[in-house]
Structures
1.
Amino acid sequence: MDEPTDAPRRADADHASYLRALYRDEAPRRVYIDDEDAVARTSSRQTLWRAESSSDPVPPPPPPPEGDLLPVPFAEEPAPLISVDGPRHVRDDEPDSTRFRRTVGYTLLSTLVPGLGLVGSQQRGLRRTGAFIAVASIFALVALAGFFAIRVQPEPGQGWFAAAAASAVGLASAQGMLHVLTVVIAAVGLLWVGLIVATHVATRSWDIPRGKRTVGAVLVALLAFAISAPLAVGANYAQVLSASIGRTFGTETNVISGSKPTVEAGNNPFAGIPRLNILLLGSDLDQERIERYEKLGYGLRTDTLILASVDTTTGATALIQIPRNVQRTPFPEGSEMAGLYPDGFRGEGDPAEWYVNSIWERVVADHPDLFAGQTYPGAEALKQGIEGITGLPVHYFAMLNIDGLRGLVDAMGGVTVNINERLPMGGSSNNKSATWGWLEPGPNQHLDGTHALWYARSRWNTDDYSRMQRQSCLIKAITDQANPTTLLTRFEAIAGASSDMVTTDIPREALEGLTELALKTQTQPMKRLVFVNGANGYDHANPDFEIMRERVDELIHPAPSPSSSSSPTATVDEATPKESPSASERSNEGAQDIADACAYNPVEEEG
């Protein structure tokens, strides 16, 4: 640039003071430009100084003395660099690899703690925002941990983490909480992913090479997916579970039952109930049988009757299995059914039409006004019959149908059981044939839904009591295998199958406490009492209900076992092998541990 001819020459000593006066208090900024010399055909870099705040015309600076460099004003604090692409975030002399590694590090920080990587930004507002979000995230996590520390109350012998997991599952069973959880998860996911992207952009150098820019974009995409994928799955699970709860469970106000207890939503809704008794029913209703029943003029029958009595403090569970062919079922004194059948459930015609498994059907068909206004009249009648047999009040019922059970087992990926005797799938005892083959004896057999269904239903070559034992084994297998891993990996299928298979009067308000109680049962031994013909007071032709109720009371309130010091020492000949008991002998043992009843102990076939 040519110097004006009329510009005064200044002494070398006045050059620096001239520049300072020229720019006053404004810090100069430098712009690098490329200037091609038309004569030399070479590129040289020149530094141009300008003042942006002064409105007065600024005369061009005089050329520096020959051999001297232009002094840099305020050299003790280098001025920032600008370019047409915006402010530079790094020094010119810093290698590209170092700058890129720093950006990656900040991006990873925002992935680990939302917003933390923004502290590496050059903009003060972004740094403050990132620090605030990171602190808020840590505070929320600490508050959540504190909430659980206060809310979780481990039972004796229960670990704190197990109690916390039970409490979390219980909270998730509340439908309103699931809707809130879905919104929160979605919002957190969007914010977190946005912070990852913002951190990478805010800390990235403007002149990063194209290759590293591509690598950075791929890295951000992978990190965003790693955060968003599990959160999206969690939000989806919350909605699936909410829909399943809505289809299966009614509210306390719209499920009308004269026998169910009144509970309030919240922790431990069964505090005033020492034992919660739930009637588990299995109906043979599938689509084929529904069509057949409509033609024959009769409907639902409950061929499987199991009363689960759960200690609400410990979770210890006792299963009481009742034969479907119990005759003259008694009813509690003063109940509706006792007024209708004072001498027990009996009437004209075929005695098989008056077994306990037909109470639901006959009351609905013959006495539609008996439990008018209640949601499940047949269940109310059957509850009173089960109470008459066992002496225990029945609080809730849950009825499973065949198609639903098959779907549940398939959704869980199958169940593993021990098969102790050869079982036919289909067929009849008339020609001793099996329509769809046989289930062969063997330990730890993994069955899909169809084979598990026949394991529980098959009976023509055994008897009802053997089938009842296998049903309790299938319940135990499903309970044992409903672990967190199975539930998480197969959640949607299990939730869908469960809602299709269950009819129940359990209200949603009881689900939190009931879920926590169910998790406790997995850590407790499960006892079983089965009424077998000729034992425990049960005789098919003339059952002694008083003795049967005594056996139930002994199961629920067992007498303390005598100490070893007061009992004579028994000598066992370990060399003498024990004979394997038959199925009927095992069934006659009365109260027993289900794990023992379901162990592999094959039955020797006759002949």
2.
Amino acid sequence: MLDKLLLICAVCAVLWHLAGLHSQVQAANPYLPLWEHVPDAEPRVFEDPDNPGRYRLYVYGSHDTRRTAYCGYDIIVWSAPVDDLTDWRCDGVVFQSIVNGAADVLFAPDCVEVVEPDGTKSYYLYPNNQGGGRNTMVAKAKRPDGPFEVINWRPGSTTQTQGVMGFDPAVLVDDDGRVYGYYGFQRITGVELDPATMARMRPDTAPVVDMIGSCTFNDGNVFRYFEAPSVRKIEGKYVLVYSRKTVQGEYGLGESVATLAYAYADSPLGPWTYGGTIIDARAPEVGPTGRMIATQPGHNTHGGLVEVGGQWFITYHRAINNDGYSRQATAEPVEVRVTETGELIITGTRQIVDDYGNVYTGAEVTSQGFEINGLNPYKYCSAGITCYLLGGPYVKATYDTWRDDAPVVNIRSYAIVGFKYFNFSAAPQDGKSTELEVYITPKGAEGKIEVWLGSPWEERGGSLLGGVSFPAGLEERLTKLVIPVPEADRLEGKQAVYFVFRSDSREQICEFNGFKFNRVEAPAAQPSIAELDEWDRANLIPPNLTIYAGGRPLEAFQLSDYDYNVYKHTLVVPAGTEDVPQVTAEADDPRVEIEIEQAQSLPGTAVVKFRKLDPKEDYPAKLYYIEFKK
């Protein structure tokens, strides 16, 4: 009973909470808030239905809410105006498939726009439904943010759809109105779709099976298709972006499916010419010995090309939390050009060459995201926007919609956490000097943090900016370290910043929460441990929420698979109990408002709602369900 209640309430909670959430976040990678997990993001520029003549960048992705398995039960859409890619908002859940009371799992989607004969626009969503008999599902809306309704049920059925589109669907609406579909895992099929249905194959046409070579074929083909097709038309060329399984030794790294490659053609169904790697989510970089190394964990990735304001970007996703089920949307700029001889060339903005002749021409993995001129170093940055991890640390998923934050954890001696890039040209000319404030959560061991510019190694051109030590035995709570860095006053342009952790202990040193450069009148003479100030306490320490049943605090609430804001707890009351335990709750933050709905009987369910009130932010409510059982 509670599971069904949670499904209904969670669906409503997502729609209610997130549809009204307009978080103002930077466009750093990940370009959505750090609590959000939208992999497989397909970028599309569509006209804003509420502001005719103006356009927004919409991303349609799957939703990693299940935490121990891929994706989730809804398609959620985020968008930003094309003239300000730092102003992202959540447009809410645009589609779900609930059949016979159960929600289907939805994988990587696509969405395309069709201009109707009367000039109106329709939007077709391909939700990649994993429910039995529903993988070919297509849904339609009159707005890019939905709601979308299924249009291809089999006659007489509300559980099975008809059509040809399969796993990881991608769609291209050509200039002449003809429509093409692409799909497949490890083997790709291309079809021409019937524009009257947008689901079935056009009559008198045939599918093109194995449109490019598969990674499972032993024929030596260079395409090595794995999954995740995405198709665009650029200067008359048809461009297929897809996840490719690399060959051992390519640009000095091992075999992986963490790459997006591309092929191009003069016809929407080929024949295709292989272009190369657009991005490798493992973040290739030259290591201390001069060899190419991976500086991010490798998993799968998925994305597409989009042009905004004359600049091309490739979207992709990264894997955090030391698993593949907490993926996040990321993006990098790329250069796209068609040569006089008809070649389509896509490269990153920085070629990476190691000392052994390995060359990586794809997009550089950075912390910048859409802020391609560099991040502002004088704003607080969560350590979770790192783009460079060596020595075992990883970004921990928090799923806390009240905090745009994610720590880097499992930090031991010689761990490196890096960020590319910050633009120090924005430093105010105010006569002040620069300090660096570093926020950590100690784990008991003594440690030292070194801050490097350019590279974490002197032999690769790095320079030491400063450092700070802290003793063993510090309390395990948010701690601020202050490092005077007067050299930063003279920095200009974009700089990479690296934090190198050292310790004589083999144990975990700390968690890395975040940092910011700060301009002060009188900088500290020496590195030190500082007291948290009012800003720190208000912005970096989450409210402590406590729920009691019958006067006893409850622990081990389980986060719902459907929503980051829905939690549940089951409490078995002693045999013979007749009175319903009363639920109370408290918060140590005066900005938190509490509402309680008591259970009316045994068995029964109580609900506690926490709302964080803030004039600058529209935070979603957190719902806690307490199920009483005998």
3.
Amino acid sequence: MYTVQLIQLPLHPSTAWEPTGNIPLASALLAATAALPVESIFPEELLNTLGDTALLEELKRRDPELLGVTLYLWNRERTLHLLRSLRQWKPELLVVAGGPEVTPDNHTLLMESSIDLFVAGEGESFAADVLSPEKLRIILATGQKLLGPVVDTQPPDRWPDPYEKGYLAPHEGGSVHIETQRGCQCLCSYCAYRRTSPIPRMIPAETVLKKIRMLHDMGAEELVFLDPTFNSRLDMDKLLRGMSRFNLDCFAEVRSDLIHSSATADALAEAGFNSLEVGLQTMSTKVLHSVGRGGNPLSILKGAVLLKKSGITPIMDLILGLPGDDPGNIELAATELVSRELHEQVQTFCLSVLPGTELRANAKALGIRYEDRPPYTVTQSGPCSIQHLLQSRDRISDILGYDADPPPRPVLSDSFPGMEIFIPEKKQPLISPSVRHGVLRIKTSDPWAYRESILGKVRERREKDPYCPLDVVIQSEKLFPLDLIDMLNDFSEPECYTTEKAKIYQVPGLLRLAVIMPPATDLSWLMECSEMTLTVVRSHSTVSLPGGQVGLLLSGSHDLAQLSALYSQAPHLVFFAQKELEIIWNLDVLGLG
């Protein structure tokens, strides 16, 4: 039995090959602060790979007395599903929840009966008390349901370092999340930092460099800085000079309008930054100032150009639906990005009205309406409905030349960890893997004749892991009535971040269908099928795309550089039977992950 277990469930990326980026830094910080055993942190590998059922069974096996969960908007509903099941199994289990979702104004969450105590804001100050079963029972006896948030005035290095204390270790070739500051000088009304941590608290550059040296010596190869604005520190020059000695790949979010010279951009490149996230948001200076972000869009673009000239890829962010904004300003931003050749990687978001933000508190007065569950998407911003915003998003994609938020890409390769091959013609035991990202490959000569078996198999998988992605791939040798696609699409999905976002953008949610057909398949049938779901034909050689939205599944080895040029107009319609080629295509050509 484990006394305490701390869990942080991952985001589901749009492709199975993309890393989840789920490093349990929050769990490790709390465990180190409370001096818990290292085993109190639920293993990262299991968090990122186990399905709902397997995760539940593993927690039952560990049989904790107290469970701590970190809630983000993307893992909230799946975590609550897990907690409710655990409570049915063990009613006396103690549960503490923290993370960005826990705010005093998130009323629907605070009513959740499977959680005993919520801790808002930074949790280290409470860790020793709320992660001790005995002390937690004393707190609960007072009737408290919510603690915090407490505004801290000291840098985060006052707490034990989880890497130094052995709670976390870098994976070979993997990323390390590092925090060198808390708080933010920007006062964006759509960000909770404005309330919970309004004053930046920096770890001095020399201390950061000691931490980086330690991580480097432990085998870290990539640093992901969690700082709200990496380049807001006064001693940045000193930090960048020191970082240049370690030859690490680095990523952070910056204010590019603070980058005034090529020397600064060069220093960032020499420090190891190959890409940096830049929040342009809109071309309206008035709107930027009204939401507390400030800055000048032209200055932001100028700084981003300096980054690009230094060899750094700026990942540009745009937000649709900011109060007082006009979608035309975002479309203008996309045009400006193209004209300056800054459009290689652009992220376009519809505004999320997050709990704990000033925007949410003043939403009614600002003419803002929004969904009251993750991802809290704006449904009305002044005169603009969500339909107006989505139409603008489509125009932005046309300007950029690609979909800024592409649909999920199912696995069509011949192998994948946990892939289940289902042949309905054969009697197979109903024993399926429970994995976070499932792939069900259905191989049959006649899908329609075996439709009941296929539907039953899919139903079994969805019931086993309802909050996990499942790629259902029908590999058929003959045409079949497309009513089967409708039947599969009729499967209900739980309300959660992934499915709610999918409804808004009209893309597949957790159930992701695809059809693989022989090369000689009737083109009109293929075209009709491709209007309903992803449809590809098998090919051993590089041939022209069949037409419309019908894709290719290529077997054998290929020169990806040549293919990238050949299929430059529709790279998203090219798939590979060989897993290694598919991974490279996803990451290097499509930029997924």
4.
Amino acid sequence: MTGELLLRGGSVRTLDPETGTAEALLIRGDRVHAVGTDREVTAAAGPDARVFELDGATVVPGINDAHLHLIWHALSGPEFCVNLAAAGDLDAVAAALATAPPGEWVLGRGWRETSIAEFAEGTAPVSRRWLDTVTGDRPTLLHHASAHSVWCNSAALRRAGITAATPDPPAGEIVRDEHGEPTGLLLESAQDLVKRLLPQPGRAQRLDAIAATMARLNRLGVTSLTDPMVTPELWQDYRELHASGRLTLRICALLHWAEPATDSAEGLRRALDWPLPREHGELLRVGGIKLFADGVPTHGTAWMHRPYSGGGYGDLVTAGADTPRRVRELHALIRLAHRRRIRAQVHVTGDRAADAVVDAIEAAAADPWPDARHVLIHGTFLSPRVYERLARNGIGVITSSLMRTYSGPSMVRTLGEQQWADAFPARTLLDNGVPTADSSDAPVTDPDWRRGLATFTGVPGPNPFAAPTERLTREEGLGLWTSGPAWMEKTERHKGTLAPGRLADLAVLDGDPLTATGAELLELRSVLTVLGGRVVPG
């Protein structure tokens, strides 16, 4: 029989509670046909089945990153912008910017205040004037690692017409010095004043970059992801990749439009009045929409119950001149999505903002929609009383374990050690029956599920969960990268575990993630990644 692939002689971690761990797996077409012992599964295979001897390797369900900005990640390579993540001081920033690819603009990504010595020590501010000495009249925009701010030089501000007289846009801030002059730091929606001027790569260049990035993810064992900010143009890119047979990941798209569609109910209503994109089978699906409730703790823009060390509580970023009106707008946004039967995934990092989003979802549920599956993205900080409400209302939470590695110093400086220790409470979420998945939020972090699994299971490293009571088991942690994301997409009957009838999405790892030492876990390699029965990248 043709179209069969037999994997035998190893360990198959199905993550299916009924099947457990097996020795072999048979793929027929794009589905898992049989799982069991070597003898059982080999007997079920046809005479023409291709055989892959595992030689002790471990098969796991294909990795699914529940929150990954694929186009941003694709366009963050050295051919497009400068990587500033490793810059430890301003001299290193200057040296990196000297390598910028040719073009009208200088673009960079990945800087953090706590990583650059002069900023961390307070000996120099984030300033357009320093940037001017390095980049001159060539307009420059440097994305913060969080993607919630940018650092611009004077030429970029001039292009955008930003002066001391320019008002802050709604839900954004033009940071100013003691004389009221813009420093070059733009927070939240103020970024768009400059970002909208950036030249965009042509379609062919974008498609090639996306395809290359998908291949890199495939080599890590990734077979699915949710892209949380899919604009109409990006949807067309994905459609073209699908039509040409170049999609090597399953993409669950969260539709997103420019403001005011994401911060006002009226803007969202206008966007939703247009026909929604048509799905393309199991490879390219619409999973809902993305909304923003607040910002990020490192910038003091997450809405918190407790004040920041420098004062203030943050606030919502929805439309409105004051907090009560922003709360009403948040309710209106979620009510509209719920009424249209469109799942909403909401960016929320502050505990007070999370409470407000859950309030809004509960209010929208007055219009019954069984299994709505609205989701909190990040859920960085959560109030003790919110867990039961999340579980009762079937609200999922997508955590961001990798931010413990990348954002620790910034968070500690802003919130203190004790509060940062409570971030991304995956253990408490699972214990309370809250549907939970994990994610990279790339390019905010490097999309390496192995480091995420290590972080939540107590492997020593930057900012792990040290207390045993907070750790996950390896199987629980792996579930956050497989079955958990499938629940968020409402595809758990098709993927996320390996059982007969499920999609044949899997990774063959050269070690067992459930038993590997910490060092071994971080070095695991996928020797074979299969998407719907097809080896990827081809």
